[in-house]
TrEMBL record, chain A:
Keywords: Oxidoreductase. This is Sarcosine oxidase subunit alpha. It comes from Kibdelosporangium persicum. Residues 413-496 form the SoxA A3 domain. The keyword Cytoplasm does not apply. PANTHER family: AMINOMETHYLTRANSFERASE, AMINOMETHYLTRANSFERASE, MITOCHONDRIAL. Residues 115-343 form the FAD/NAD(P)-binding domain. It comes from the Bacteria. Residues 801-887 form the Aminomethyltransferase C-terminal domain.
UniProtKB/TrEMBL annotation, chain B:
It comes from Kibdelosporangium persicum. InterPro entries: SoxD, SoxD_sf. This is Sarcosine oxidase subunit alpha/sarcosine oxidase subunit delta.
Amino acid sequence: MRLPEGGEIDRTKPLTFTLDGVEYSGFEGDTLASAMIANGVLQVAPSLYRHRPRGIFSAGIEEPNALVQVGPEPSLQATTVRLTDGLVARTLSGVGRLTPDSGQRRYDKRYTHTDVLVIGAGPAGRMAATTAAAGGARVMLVGLSYPSGNVRFRGSPQGIPPADGAAELRVLSGARAFGYYDSNYVLVAHQQTLWHVRARRVILATGAHEQPIVFENNDRPGIMLAGAVRKYITNYAVLPGRKAVVFTTNDSAYATVAALVQSGAEVTVVDSRPNPPDLAPQGVEVISGLITNTDGPERLTAVSTQDRRIECDLLAVSGGWQPAVHLFSQSRGTLRWNGQAFVPDTPAQANHVVGAANGTFDTRAALIEATEAGVEAAAAVGYPVPPPPLPAVREREITPASPVWLVPGDPRNQFVDLQRDATVADIRRAVGAGMRSPEHVKRYTTIGTGTDQGRTSNVPALGVIAAELGVTPGDLGTTTFRAPSVPVSFALMAGRDRGKLHDPIRTTPIHSWHVAHGAEFENVGHWKRPWFYPKPGEDMETAVLRECRAARTGVAMQDASTLGKIEVVGADAGEFLNRMYTNGFKKLPVGSARYGMMCKADGMVFDDGVTMRLADDRYYVTTTTGGAANVLDWFEEWSQTEWPELDVRFTSVTEQWSTIAVVGPQSRAVIGLVAPDLDVSNEAFPFMTFRETTLVNGIPARIARISFSGELAYEVNVSGWYGLAAWNAIHDEGKPYDITPYGTETMHVLRAEKGFPIVGQDTDGTVTPHDLGMSWIVSRQKDFVGKRSLRRPDTARPDRKHLVGLLPVDPAELLPEGAQMVASDAPLTPPVPMEGHVTSSYRSAVLERTFALALIKNGRHRIGETLLAPLGDRVIAATVTEPVFYDKEGARRDG
Amino acid sequence: MLLISCPWCGEREETEFHYGGQAFVAYPADPESLSDEEWAQYVFFRDNPKGAFAERWVHSAGCRRWFNTVRDTVTNEFQS
Amino acid sequence: MSLRRSPLAGYPGITEIPFLTMVNVRVRPTGDAAARISERLGGPLPVVPNSVVDAGSRHILMLGPDEWLVVGPDGDTGLPDLLREPSASVVDVSANRTTIEVRSRDLLEHGCTLDLHPRAFHAGRCAQTMIARTQVILWQTSDEPVYRLLVRGSFATYLADWLSDATGSTSSTG
Ligand SMILES: [Zn+2]
């Protein structure tokens, strides 16, 4: 019921909303929950497991019952959803359902830095923030709500205006900090934006959560936290019930009593303390005692004390206050039991806890703490301020609280965790099964694991466990607090990193041509590489066979710009590369190129590629497409940390150069046309050399004779600015030869036919150069990283897995890559001894059959043996062969 | 998430760095003279203390410089 | 049609400054080679990390203790040879990156973890860092503010896509 006046709502701005298909109205400034109560809707969806009727229980982030789905977002708390016009919500029982399509909703993230971050916008938080900001420090105040205008406090109507110097005070209202990580890194959810805040100091003014009391049937609609009842009356001008009972263990609920009385409700108080206050003059009966049970068809109609039954439609409960220590605890601060609650003890980061979050419930004392923290933080970040005057706040006298953990009754209906539907009976079962640690009881009963993070159940659960074990909650300690401390959606965490922005896509300067010519693409690292270029009506297999045929019998071209490229410069560049690669580079003549292989210290192959010597002190190193960044890091590491005396420096030039491979018996003719100034004869331009020249269209180029296919082949390198122009020139000049663009699949087939391994496909970090059958590339003369490991007993074993060829007995059968191979006489009942696995497998145009590469135990000594690939529904038999299938003599390289 | 101080660029987010493991593990002067056990110590074995630990980081997304620092593995505080 | 093509040619709504001349210089900062390079540039190589000094139409960005990026205008083709020194690594990287101009701090804060508040970052500062998921050299050229993002050519479209997308959402979350 809406009260005729009061509250912080804007009655000039009515809003309509729909809940479970029924239309209601509220006002600007309402939460969904306050608007529901204004319309008399207190009941929400039934509980998750017991299907018991439940109602709105709180007025904030501790809400266990009133979960709703709003549009695509499940598991929101009606108590924290700001009412907007046209809002459509549905009540949920415990869990929501993710909507795969979040529609037009945009999520985002922001990074920000601040000198001081204040979390919590209650009186203490506001006081701390305005104090800290007064000297000019950058201050961010994050809170659920922040009324505009002066910072006001109860009992201090004039409030405090923010100081003039506070130009850098920024307020995020309607925001929730939910994660506190190392080095004062705090995550804040604010509408659809996830803020990443890095602060030099943090002030935690997160307040406290009122705790319920555990008694029989304490879960009916109409039972609410006392503070929530007061908040609904004072902030939203809604009255949750007309005939109220207030059940309390402490003084704080008497503010609720006053608010209820002022709103015209009939009130009876049940106070657990032997000498409760006398409110007879105000017409309120105060009973010293306990509520033992409740009654009602669904919504509450009456409560019972030990000796009375009181008709009512609202029960406001206060079992005391637990400081909201989630964030402090996440920051690794330690907690201490003070007899009533767990309070912050020792901080582990540069933070301060103030006010109710620190267990300081008196407003005046809280403001003093907040002021001190603000002054301290301002000084610590270099913008000192004098202590500001305290607002005039009444001091209060406090009667000590008398905590009640459990009122005797039927344990099956004494609810400890409303969201998880867990009861005292569940705890007794856990303790009876021998569990003592709250962590174990939590996992057994699921208490505290709901989306409300146990804000109204953790402490009562500890109270019940302690009572069962005859100890205090302080003896038990709390369970671990983890982020997120309030529910946040996956969509919020993903932000805009979705769709094409999910992960970077790298493209070459020639990419637009590939797209225009119908290429299918393959992802290699972040790169999009043409996979094959199907002609109309072609499937992948047909296209790849055609591309392979062109490279073996005519001429074909590939965009190889994705190769990693590093210039290595300095007087000791050759010496450095000698130490990195298994083979030598110091004596490589200027103008020549050499294939090289690198190992990690453990002797396992790490990367490979061709290096050209541009000048005495200058090398141009190429790496695998995926390995470029790792190789550069690797070079820097050894150069900086082990051999700083070597004069050598590295510069990544991957995008500086576009590289086009021109492959096939007709490639010499095409290059002759593309580079008219170049003598392309085998004598003038031999294999593994390069030449600087100018292309037919005037572009400067560096052309190398390098082959990854065994065919006569060239690599044309031009500035990235001219990559597309060079590609077009080669394509144009190659037309008379029907030059055929090819993709990565054809490249893989061609090299596999020659037995050239691909690092990362035929190797996996457990393969040495010897395992690959490439002992010829391992220098005996010089040391290189990983060399000593090749002599380790395990690495030198003769029966390691070797790279070998596999020819399926049926030449039409294609072995799947990754298939495990077993011996032909192996029993096919587990455990089946594995002999190795297929690393590459293709159909070959030139071999007119399928073939594969595989890593097989002792493979080089098993040539001719037949192995089996059991594939569930079928078995493929294949013969072990040498890994070179085509042109074993290497006759085709020079054309 | 750690805030790591690069000696050249100042404080940057952890995501800009790569971890390089224990510091002061020098590449042996003459690997060939080492026994298998000694070489295995160099390649495979590192300390894993609770508390102060001298370790290497590289500012890989920034200036690419390697540096040594001391981190408390319990509190994640850097002490260099 | 021009033979030369920049990574973001024709990309709508993005201010690309294409074809700037860029030369990566790595040299011992205190040696003769560094002195000769400074002399030829007409200004000292900056020694404050992540700072920028201007030398005529060129700008010198300090990237690391022994590393600088010299940025000249389009067509400054003699720059690499001008800086060449026997005991320095001088590498033409003009086509390695392209340059995007951005005039909003707010926009960058959607994907950049650096503190870009004027107290921490201002004209004459540069940084190698990440924007969204790609590395950039971020360089503030004016306190208006105006920033330049030097991004590798292969990542340029991704960054342009990201900036375009972020521009669409800054107005609502600013
Ligand atoms: Zn750095």
